[in-house]
Amino acid sequence: MAGTTGLDQSKIVDIDLGGAAFKQNAWTHLAQWAQSEPFYVPAEGGTEVVCGRYGDAQEVFLDTERFSSELPKGRGFEKFDKYMGIQVLAQTDGAAHARIRKLLMPAFSSSSLTRLEGRITELVDGMLDAIEGRAGDSFDAMRDYGAKIIVGALLDAMLRLDEAQKAVFLEFHEVLPLTTYVKAGEPYPEVCVAALEKARDMVDRIIEERRARPGDDFISQLISARDADDKLSDEELFNQTFTVCGAALSATTRSMGGMMFALFSHPDQLDILKNEPDLMPMGIEECLRFGSGGYFTFPRVATCDTEVGGTKIMKGMIVRPSPQAANLDPKVFADPLRFDVRRNPKRILTFGAGPHLCVGNRLGKMAATIAISRLVQRFPHARLADPAFKPQYGGAVGELRIGELPMLKH
Ligand code: HEM
Predict the structure, then answer these.
(1) Cβ neighbours for 69, distance < 8 A, ≥ 6 positions apart
(2) Among residues 358, 335, 375, 365, which one has the least CA distance to residue 34?
(3) N or C of the chain: less Cβ packing under 10 Å?
(4) What is the DSSP letter of 187?
């Protein structure tokens, strides 16, 4: 893997991209990245390149010829194989990627989303009832709400899993971030391997059941998905069910935390949305710009010696575009650290760009819009328990996942 010999030494930044110290100061770093040329980070296994300016990140997202999502497997690359060997759509390129995406898309069509909207609203209202019913005035907007939204929207409304099946999926989702911290040559933590096996058995059983008795759920849709004579093989069906859910659970949970924190830590902006509810779609877009919760997407690997934004990149280097830094680029978003629900930001990179643009972007945005609008309507005086609250960020390398968000209801 690539070292630092022959590189512009002034562009080497010694920083632990997944470390707690980095995460706690992430906003300072991200705002700097948004204005810096791509730079090198010596990492376990080889030098990585971080692209934070909007144009640089976008260039990497769009050019799958030079920047492939198909990372090598094996020693030194264990930490990038988040799903421990399962073929992930986000790490497949070219014709194979386009084919699977085409087969997946009907499950994310407007009519599929319209069918889900009412069910998601009901589930969200049920969660708010439970918060209302809790003794005392305090609640945890992450544990009691944000982290549950996609569980309801996806596992319940979209996949129609029962409680035991949901628990298996969530257990897997809980330990998954650990795989992104595995060092070269180390095995995956036992707890991840065990959770994967349990989830694998469960998904296999569900596919079998739905094949025998198809319903109007996502898995049944995938089973019957056809493009001319083409359809998903059993292996692909398993991989997609598994990894689409993984992508949805981690991304939506961390985004819900980032979005709620952005909004509730700016009470003046929250008041604007309460007084002018028509601004909500614009406000949600600003929440997504400001608090996407992910500072990296899946990494890319350079397929040739090349250059981005004035920085040399050698074949084989890991390249990390940062959507969250790009969303703070002052050349694209004026005064980017100002949270402004009237901003109406265009072309945010929260859902990536190019061929790997998030397939669930409309579903994720719909679930977040329902969740935030209903929370504000139901508890118009809801606020952070401590107005100066500073979140502790956890999650995988690349994620800023808020664990707790203590709030008051009234
Ligand atoms: C607010 C919530 C969400 C955010 C911020 C988000 C973000 C992203 C980003 C940035 C990517 C691009 C990854 C890359 O280029 O390496 C992506 C891809 C993906 N997302 Fe999401 N996502 C969200 C919700 C969802 C949901 C709800 C689903 C499914 C139900 C989903 C499924 C996927 C899949 C399958 C991919 C891979 C697409 C491909 O490679 O073609 N995401 N997401």
Answers:
(1) 90, 91, 92, 93, 97, 298, 300, 356
(2) 335
(3) C
(4) P
In a domain, 358, yes or no: yes
- Cα–ligand 1 centroid distance for 297 (angstroms): 9
Q: Ligand 1 center to residue 52 CA distance, Å?
A: 19
Report the alpha-carbon distance of residue 16 to residue 77 in Å, rounded. 17
Q: What angle do CA 186, 78, 233 make, to 5 degrees?
A: 130
pLDDT tens digits, residue range 166-214?
A: 888 888 878 878 888 888 888 899 998 998 899 889 888 998 999 899 9
Residue 94: in which H helix or E strand, if any?
helix 94-104
Atom of ligand 1 at shortest range from CA of 153: 27
Prediction pTM value: 0.93
**Which residues contact ligand 1 via a Cβ below 6 A?**
89-90, 101, 154, 244, 247-248, 251-252, 255, 292, 297-298, 323, 350-352, 356, 358-360, 363-364, 368
- Let me know if residue 3 belongs to a domain: no
Atom of ligand 1 nearest to the CA of 292: 5
Distance CA 328, CA 139 (A): 31
Contact 409, 132 (CB under 8 A): yes
CATH number at residue 125: 1.10.630.10
Query: Atom 19 (ligand 1): residue with closest C-alpha?
Result: 358
Q: Report which protein residue has its CA nearest ligand 1's atom 36.
A: 358
In whole angstroms, what is the distance from residue 236 CA to residue 87 CA? 8
Beta strand pairing call for 46-51 and 318-321: parallel
